[in-house]
Design brief:
The chain has 140 residues and is of the alpha/beta class. It has one domain (2-136): 3-Layer(aba) Sandwich (Rossmann fold). The chain is 51% helix and 15% strand. The chain is built from 7 helices and 6 strands, in the order E-H-H-E-H-H-E-H-E-H-E-E-H. It has a 6-stranded mixed beta sheet. A hairpin with a 2-residue loop joins strand 5 (118-119) and strand 6 (122-125). Helix 1 (7-15) packs parallel to helix 3 (39-52). It is globular and about 35 Å long.
Length: 140
């Protein structure tokens, strides 16, 4: 299963050793989850790490980034995408381009409210919601 991680999830995983974001990242290999993000999210994460906490940069470098495959953000999409948040469009497009099963993010206002829970078969959830779904299916 391919999981696309938005900047908010990457920052949360870097900033805290606990929580659903860190669990998803640290347990991915054992669970058979492929973690993917984009160069756009990588750059945005690096820029915002100082705001997260003093140990976030170390966690990012040693624990989070090495477990994620970063792809080049694609700006072409063969389907219409009506999404008012221009800064988040590259995230959705990159997640669709790499054929992710899930887009995990913590920005419920911009993603979940405006896009809903699915776009072109790409499921959208917080890491916590994703884990609850996995538990309900007996995966966890």
């Amino acid at each position: 299963m391919r999981l696309f991680l938005d900047t908010s999830v990457l920052l949360a995983a870097s900033g805290s050793g606990k929580g659903a974001s860190r669990f998803v990242v640290t347990e991915a290999a054992a669970r058979g989850w492929e973690l993917v993000s984009s160069d756009y999210c990588d750059e945005e994460t690096r820029r915002n790490l100082p705001k997260v906490g003093r140990s976030a940069a170390t966690a990012w470098k040693n624990e989070i980034a090495p477990r994620v495959r970063f792809v080049r953000a694609s700006v072409a999409l063969d389907k219409p995408l009506v999404f008012p948040k221009a800064k988040d469009r590259p995230v959705v497009i990159a997640a669709l381009a790499v054929r992710s099963d899930w887009l995990l993010n913590l920005d419920e206002g911009d993603f979940h409210t405006k896009l809903g829970r699915e776009v072109y078969g790409l499921r959208i959830a917080t890491p916590g919601e994703f884990l609850v779904e996995q538990r309900a299916q007996g995966v966890l």
